[in-house]
Specification:
With about 1300 residues, the chain is of the alpha+beta class. About 40% of the residues lie in helices and about 15% in strands. Its cofactor is [4Fe-4S] cluster.
């Protein structure tokens, strides 16, 4: 019998002993533990009757002793690596790696590295992996080193082994298997080895596979798809044959006609799964079981592991009953007097002993005749009173019971009931007296934690004793009805606080905003009149120490009704018989979806009212499709009449045709009418009469669609509008900017265009109502923000979360402002700028859906960051989260529940936009970030905004890293766009590269919902920052076969040069022209030279029969020739030209300054704020031009030499402080400026934006042009100033060091 045994012992235990023999050269070393164990086993476990056959003929046996159990000592070891199983509840045996103290591998058992024929990829991976487990000083550092090895091998499979040779790749991914029998003996069996052998016989002959012992080496192909792995084995020997033979057999086996290269036929997913399985067993699953975040995020944990980790880390898991008790040794079986003193009687839990050494009360047994023994000395009076009251209550109840039993309930029911009532009343009185006696007794108790109701507002209460010590009671939050333990009656009594008696409600279990704890939350529903009357009392409750906060006190009534009942509702059965005039409460109306009940399926009658006004002039338009009339009222104080009905009819029909309106009205069906008045009041009277006429003639539901600058003012002037449901259309402020002459026809034309589009707009708004489940007339002017608020509010209510709706952009956190420092929305927008001269084709890419992609991939990003980005697991139930009043949550954790609900909402919108093509869901996705950062949103939460902004920054950084990995050079990047250098000289090659780049990014899972749109290609780009750049843009008609280099060398190509240099605004006007000219030549001359060289090469190429390939060396040579040409131009052309300009500037600048000042004073022209021409104009010109030309890194030395010579001319030293260039323009960016008409959102630089400097504060969308609301912008600026002031006052004071 052979057995093995393992036992761990301390490293300091004596192990080896060495004996010196008589022979000095010989020593005897024994292992003390082994000798002692072997002696013990030999004495107790030796088989004394072991039989050995000695004579086979006579069958005689010899008896002797036998013991085959022997011990050996292994170690001590430095580390032992144990793998884990991929399946739950299954352990892997006899597989480990052991390391000595010196870091050498002592023993390796069971791993694939020791198996012959195993996948070499796994074997090499494991060979590199095990040593890394010794790195690092913590578990995290250890697994980080191990993960680096795993990531490197995963990268090898992800990039399909492009960095290694084909032979090396085959060596890594091939497997081998030796066939124990001949191929014919396997019959119809299926395996990779059998398939490999048959395919070897296919092209090598049957003689090669007829014998057994054949070694089959194969790889797994991806074709034919859908077949088992055993049928996709390809012998490696096929890749060593002739190329044509290889292609023939590979196409035959793979059943494909496409490319059959090595990398194209390999089943990469199969090998990723094999490697991922090994990584899971050795790295990721053991890391998770040791509470380390997934070190290899690309290898996903199995589902059961997530559950296992949550169970191990759950702080609120139910404790076992045995955890409460502790084991007592046998020697302590006898309980001492001191132990007896610690054990309390069940009836004395509330009574505190005066001394710890006091004897415990003895429990007596009472006789039936109520004879009691004398009172024990040292027993408290309160305990006696409690015992008396309980006994009296018990005896009285027995007396009543016996008396009641004498009355038959069926004979004398009234008598029986009267006795019962007296009994119940007596019991109630007894209990009241008992509670009163208990409360009096509690005054003598010194421990505050044992007071009745003492849990309320006592943080850090002392440790409780008795039964209460077995339970942990959370601190009861103020504003609640705390649970007080009444030990006398063994019940938990609900004690209402006096503050809540005026506002009765019900307890609810909901999640509070920002993860605040919700122990006792009371929902109070009162009508609006009482709410207004009792508003002061509610405000006073916030000062009550027992009230933590009052939530949802700022929810508008109308908004609350919209999110509860939607646009289609059903009356409750209990209120169906009620008259409609009496009305219903919200609780009696149940929301129905538009799929269950249709909403405005039949066309509804409407009339359209349009109004615009400017400086006493105005125009009113009423379009009534039901009556077939268009009435126009012109308010004109000057009495000139430029509008006729025929003009209106023509404009109306042209507008209908432009809109492709299928329901184009017949020519004679619409009557046009024009009225002229001198005052607005007269026009309102005409409108009043016209709409009243419509009401009298047309019966049935009618809707009023109003488009005017002020709808409330319109309704107050035209009172008949109150009789109709009204829907408001946002008004474009540009409509009310009349020109001086011809304003009537221009305004009437716009009115006809708006009237023609009114029906189409109404149909779209009805479709939006059906999708959003919002009544048609309840949309606000910014329907995107309003719809998002409604969706988010409903989602939060479905998840039992309290809303933080407010009307001032500050979330309602129950009335507390302790988080006022977190209310700022000012975030640092990432802007990456890499100045330089980019002579190759560049492309500007617009980034779409960055916020949506960041939100949907937030969990993946959080896992990649090790869980530090979003705090706790986003999938964790918020009700199980522990809140610490002193430490609190960080911003990410407090917003986790809201972020989770928002993510689910966006996923539903994305499904609607992708599957059904819903335009409204797509619009919400496009404006997600604008909604989150807009203070006009009712659910605006700056903390949520900043969390999403953090995730967007991570996705943005990963996007730029991916672009660099794919060979692009970043020029400029922010959240809205990125400019990259493609590295291509030809436009066609750049476009092809751009298409390939975008397709590759779309295939990345992390950028699944990100969209990059090419906006502009540049042949050459000179870039300093987003407000200082110039370039040669590619024309839209440039194609792959019509590049500019096809021009002849003598032909001058026609190009456009863009010069947008904000720094030039700080130079005098005439010098600005010289600056733009020099910079434009600096871009054009090298580009023109490159085009001529390319045309020359193209001409030589066309003359030859063959087309030589352009190598990398040739491209580098061409680039070096280009650099040398630019250097020569700087030394000759630019230096001479700049010297001439500087000389003329020095001679004539005084006269130029004098003439400009006289001209500006005579015309009253004021320069833009902050623009001052300070210093010598010639010096400023030199500094500006040289700073721009120095952007080209290849010619910086030549530019510095030219700058030195130019500075000598104006007598300024090269390194003088005044010779250094500084950007003269400050920068201040106002983020998220929103157009009130088209909802466009952009960041506005108030100091450097050219339109703002020209005092043109308008929307940048060409089709819009709506002026920005300056009041909103001023409020945003004030908010930023207040926040910066607050942060300044709250900053830490740095103590200056005295010298």
């Amino acid at each position: 019998m052979d057995m093995s045994c393992a036992r761990a012992q301390d490293g300091c235990f004596p192990e080896n002993f060495t004996f010196k023999t008589k022979d000095p050269k010989k020593k005897l070393t024994i292992s003390y533990p082994c000798v002692m164990l072997n002696v013990d086993v030999a004495r107790n476990n030796t088989n004394e009757q072991y039989q050995t056959l000695t004579d086979p003929v006579n069958k005689t046996y010899a008896t002797h002793s036998e013991c085959s159990i022997e011990f050996e000592v292994d170690g001590p070891y430095k580390a032992m690596i144990l793998p884990a199983s991929k399946e739950e509840g299954i352990l892997i045996k006899k597989r480990y790696a052991v390391f000595n103290d010196d870091g050498t591998l002592a023993e390796l058992k069971g791993f694939e590295i020791k198996r012959r024929g195993e996948l070499k990829l796994i074997k090499v991976f494991q060979a590199e992996l095990f040593d890394k487990f010794l790195d690092g000083s913590t578990l995290e550092e250890c697994y980080s080193a191990v993960a680096a090895v795993a990531n490197r091998w995963l990268d090898l499979l992800d990039n399909q082994g492009k960095d290694i040779a084909d032979s090396e790749l085959l060596d890594y991914i091939s497997e081998s298997s030796t066939m124990s029998k001949s191929l014919s003996e396997y019959g119809e069996q299926k395996s990779c080895a059998v398939t490999t052998a048959r395919r070897l016989a296919d092209f090598l002959g049957d003689s090669m596979v007829k014998d057994k012992g054949l070694r089959c080496q194969y790889i797994v192909a991806c074709e034919p798809r859908g077949t088992p792995v055993s049928e996709r084995a390809v012998p490696v020997a096929i890749f060593e044959t002739d190329a044509e033979i290889m292609k023939f057999y590979l196409r035959k086996w793979c059943k494909t006609s496409s490319d059959v290269g090595i990398r194209s036929i390999i089943d990469w997913s199969y090998y990723k799964q094999r490697l991922g399985s090994a990584i899971q067993k050795i790295v990721t699953i053991p890391a998770a079981m040791q509470k380390v975040a997934n070190p290899v995020p690309r290898v996903v944990h199995p589902d059961w592991l997530h559950r296992k980790v949550r169970e191990k880390e759950d702080k609120f898991r139910q404790r076992k009953l045995v955890d409460i008790f502790t084991l007592r040794s046998r020697n302590d079986a006898t309980i001492t007097n001191h132990d007896e003193a610690d054990v309390k009687d069940l009836e004395d839990f509330q009574i505190k002993s005066s001394s710890i050494n006091r004897h415990r009360p003895i429990v007596r047994c009472y006789d039936v005749n109520d004879k009691r023994p004398a009172k024990k000395t040292g027993q408290l009076n309160s305990a006696e009173q409690q015992t008396d009251s309980v006994h009296e209550l018990s005896s009285q109840s027995q007396h009543n019971t016996s008396y009641v039993e004498n009355i038959d309930r069926n004979v004398d029911y009234q008598g029986w009931l009267e006795l019962k009532k007296r009994k119940w009343k007596d019991i109630l009185d007894r209990r009241k007296k008992q509670r009163l006696s208990n409360s009096r007794t509690s005054h003598h108790i010194t421990n505050a934690s044992e007071l009745l109701g003492g849990l309320t507002n006592h943080k850090g209460a002392q440790r409780r004793t008795g039964v209460g010590s077995y339970f942990t009671t959370h601190e009861v939050a103020p504003n609640t009805m705390p649970l007080a333990d009444n030990t006398a009656t063994s019940k938990f009594t609900l004690w209402p606080t006096p503050a809540m008696e005026n506002f009765p409600g019900r307890h609810v279990n909901k999640t509070l905003p920002h993860g605040r704890p919700s122990y006792n939350l009371v929902e109070v529903i009162i009508n609006e009149d009482k709410f207004r009357k009792e508003s002061k009392k509610l405000a006073a409750l916030l000062a009550d120490p027992e009230v933590e906060g009052i939530y949802q006190s700022k929810v508008p009534l109308e908004f609350n009704a919209v999110i509860q009942i939607g646009c289609v509702c059903k009356v409750d059965k209990t209120a169906k018989k009620r008259n409609a005039q009496d009305g219903w409460t919200l609780s009696e109306l149940h929301m129905k979806t538009t799929t269950e009940c249709s909403y405005l399926e039949q066309s509804i009658s409407f009339f359209y009212v349009y109004h615009s006004t400017s400086e006493g002039r105005a125009i009113y338009v009423i379009y009534m499709p039901a009556l077939g009339t268009v009435s126009v009222v012109v308010v004109n104080p000057y009495q000139n009449k430029d509008i006729t009905p025929s003009f209106l009819e023509r404009q109306f029909r042209e507008a209908c045709q432009a809109l492709s309106n299928e329901a184009l009205p017949p020519r004679n069906n619409i009557v046009f009418k024009v009225d002229y008045v001198g005052h607005v009041k007269d026009a309102e009277k005409i409108l009043q009469g016209t709409i009243s006429e419509l009401r009298d003639k047309h019966h049935g539901p009618t809707l009023a669609v109003i488009e005017c600058p002020n709808a409330h003012l319109m309704k107050s002037g035209v009172s008949v509008l109150d009789d109709f449901p009204c829907v408001s259309i946002p008004s474009n402020a540009r409509d009310s900017q009349y020109q001086v002459l011809g304003w009537q026809q221009a305004a009437a034309k716009i009115g006809m265009q708006r009237s023609a589009a009114s029906s189409q707009w109404l149909n779209e708004r009805i479709s939006l109502s059906r999708y959003a489940h919002v009544p048609l007339g309840n949309f606000e002017l910014d329907w995107l923000i309003f719809t998002a608020d409604v969706f988010f509010s409903r989602a939060l209510r479905d998840q039992q979360q309290v809303l933080w709706i407010s009307d001032d952009g500050v979330p309602d956190l129950g009335g507390h402002r302790e988080e006022s420092t977190c209310f700022a929305d000012e975030v640092q927008q990432p802007v990456l700028t890499y100045p330089g001269a980019y002579r190759k084709v560049s492309v500007e890419l617009k980034i779409h859906h960055l916020a949506v992609n960041a939100l949907l991939k937030s969990n993946q990003i959080n896992e990649m960051e090790g869980g530090v980005l979003l705090g706790f697991d986003q999938d964790m139930n918020s009700s199980t989260t522990l809140y610490d009043d002193q430490s609190g949550f960080d911003e990410a954790t407090s917003s986790a529940s809201g972020l989770r609900v928002l993510k689910q909402l966006i996923q539903r919108c994305l499904a609607d936009a992708v599957t059904s093509g819903n335009v409204f869901a797509d619009a919400i996705l496009q404006h997600l970030y604008r909604w989150l950062c807009s203070p006009q949103s009712k659910l605006h939460d700056p903390a949520l905004h900043r969390i999403l902004h953090k995730v967007m920054q991570k996705v943005f950084a990963l996007l730029l890293a991916e672009l660099r990995k794919l060979g692009a050079t970043i020029i400029f990047a922010n959240f809205s766009k990125v400019i990259i250098d493609t590295g291509k000289f030809e436009l066609s090659a750049a476009k092809a590269y751009c298409d390939s780049l975008l397709k590759t990014l779309q295939n990345r899972e992390l950028f699944e919902w990100l969209e990059l749109e090419p906006l502009q290609f540049w042949h050459s780009l000179l870039f300093m920052d987003q407000y200082n750049y110039g370039g040669i843009p590619a024309r839209p008609d440039d194609s792959s076969h019509n590049d500019l280099h096809h021009h002849s060398p003598t032909e001058e190509p026609k190009v456009d040069i863009v010069s947008s240099w904000n720094i030039a605004e700080y130079l005098p006007k005439k010098i600005q022209d010289h600056f733009v000219l020099i910079v434009s030549e600096f871009m054009f001359i090298p580009w023109d030279y490159a085009q001529k060289q390319a045309a020359t090469r193209e001409a030589l190429r066309d003359g030859n029969s063959c087309t030589p390939s352009i190598t990398v060396v040739a491209a580098e040579n061409f680039e070096s020739h280009m650099v040398e040409y630019i250097k020569g131009q700087i030394g000759t052309h630019f230096t001479d030209k700049l010297l001439g300009i500087v000389r003329d500037t020095v001679l004539h600048m005084k006269g130029i300054n004098k003439s400009e000042n006289v001209q500006q004073n005579s015309l009253g022209i004021q320069q833009p704020a902050g623009i001052n021409h300070i210093g010598d104009p010639a010096l400023e010109f030199i500094k500006h031009v040289c700073a721009v030309m120095a952007l080209d890194q290849h010619v910086q030395h030549e530019v510095l030499v030219m700058r030195k010579n130019l500075l000598k001319y104006v007598r300024v030293r090269e390194f003088a402080p005044e010779a250094e260039f500084h950007d003269p323009c400050p920068s201040f960016i106002l983020p998220n400026v929103i157009c009130s008409y088209c909802n466009d959102c952009r960041d506005l630089d108030l100091c450097r934006d050219s339109a703002v400097l020209a005092e043109d504060w308008r929307c940048a969308v060409p089709q819009c042009g709506q002026p920005y609301d300056r009041e909103v912008m001023e409020n945003a600026l004030l908010q930023i100033v207040r926040q910066r002031e607050r942060l300044y006052h709250l900053q830490d004071l740095v103590q200056g060091r005295r010298v």
